[in-house]
Structure of Transmembrane protein:
Amino acid sequence: MPNIEQMTHVANSCNGYNSVGTEFQSSIGNVYSKSCDNCQHLKNDKCEINLYDKTLAGLDQS
């Protein structure tokens, strides 16, 4: 299972990220911070559009 830091980095780099909330997103770890946890595409702890692994791999290569 990915950690909070990974999910935040992936969400910030993912072109498919779509927030579940409309509130201002700033503080890491708050309810509406930008993270895979707050993406509409995360279902049952899995990215339903299969971008998580691809985005994470791209971060590793930077």
